[in-house]
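Tokens in:
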């Protein structure tokens, strides 16, 4: 147990005051009449309520509060800019981000309502005034279904995307393949990577390529020498295979403090990357460092849910992620600490 985990809050008010000193989410919660509910959860938990039940109730109530707080809390840059992160586009596999049909609906909405730029253009977009939000579409890992299902839809809508490749998977390293099979709880057919020829086809169609480490491990758990290998080997293999420079990176799992540290970010810089994506559920700000560009995961989102993410309805979640102490992050998302 971490040293600072020994003192848990006595109420939801206390939790909010620790996680967000500004208190603005707490104010929205009071107006919504939900603080009393959350306090009751804390009180009941002390009397033996089942842990899973209380967590479920807490998350459901917190989501309602955060959803209502988002439009108030979002700090708009001159232009609203968002990075979306997909993994698998597939009709049936268990870890898909969307089916091909749903993905096409996403792209149709994005085409009608947003400007689209490559990942490398998202920070400048946050500085430019625009009546339409700007979106960067990204993919992680390099699954074969990205080429089979995502690429045709992207071409149909005339959109570009950035694909971050897990190089050990691409190279079919047995240890990395086994890691992905465990992570995804799937067989090889489900996690099958693209061939390098297919990656070249992506490039020919205007897509961009970045690195997603070599073996997709939690950087917090690695020694410096291991971390350096994850960064340098991934970059070198892509540049050797594709004969093009790689300067963008996506952290595996990606949550600051939980999956990488400030030291790791400096090593990313030292390995030659100029831009890196993290997992934080909010839009991009002018003040975001180039090696900490926030992305939002897309997971079975309806078009309406995607719209809310793009427009900032869920940015309060990202603010909470960034400012919560680790004990609260562990309470809300225990699986983040399992990798």
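Residues out:
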């Amino acid at each position: 147990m971490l040293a600072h985990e020994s003192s848990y809050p006595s109420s939801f008010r206390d939790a909010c005051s620790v996680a967000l000193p500004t208190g603005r989410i707490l104010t929205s919660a009071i107006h919504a009449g939900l603080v009393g509910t959350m306090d009751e959860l804390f009180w009941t938990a002390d009397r033996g309520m089942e842990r899973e039940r209380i967590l479920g109730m807490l998350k459901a109530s917190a989501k309602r509060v955060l959803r209502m707080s988002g439009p108030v809390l979002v700090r708009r840059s001159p232009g609203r800019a968002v990075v979306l992160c997909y993994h698998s586009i597939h009709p049936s596999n268990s870890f898909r981000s969307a089916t091909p049909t749903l993905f096409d609906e996403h792209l149709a909405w994005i085409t009608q309502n947003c400007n689209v730029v490559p990942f490398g253009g998202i920070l400048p977009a946050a500085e430019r005034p625009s009546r339409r939000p700007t979106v960067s579409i990204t993919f992680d890992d390099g699954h074969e279904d990205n080429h089979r299902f995502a690429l045709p839809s992207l071409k149909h809508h005339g959109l570009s995307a950035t694909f971050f490749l897990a190089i050990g998977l691409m190279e079919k390293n047995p240890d990395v393949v086994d890691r992905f099979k465990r992570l995804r709880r799937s067989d090889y057919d489900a996690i099958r990577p693209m061939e390098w020829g297919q990656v070249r086809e992506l490039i020919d169609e205007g897509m961009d390529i970045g690195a997603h480490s070599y073996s997709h491990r939690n950087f917090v758990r690695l020694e410096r020498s291991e971390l350096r290998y994850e960064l340098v080997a991934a970059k070198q293999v892509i540049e050797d295979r594709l004969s093009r420079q790689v300067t963008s990176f996506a952290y595996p799992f990606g949550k600051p403090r939980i999956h990488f540290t400030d030291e790791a970010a400096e090593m990313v810089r030292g390995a030659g990357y100029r831009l890196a994506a993290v997992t934080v559920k909010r839009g991009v700000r002018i003040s975001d460092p180039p090696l900490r560009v926030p992305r939002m995961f897309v997971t079975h989102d309806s078009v309406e849910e995607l719209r809310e993410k793009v427009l900032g309805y869920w940015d309060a979640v990202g603010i909470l992620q960034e400012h919560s102490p680790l004990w609260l992050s562990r309470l809300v998302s225990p699986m983040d600490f399992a990798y």
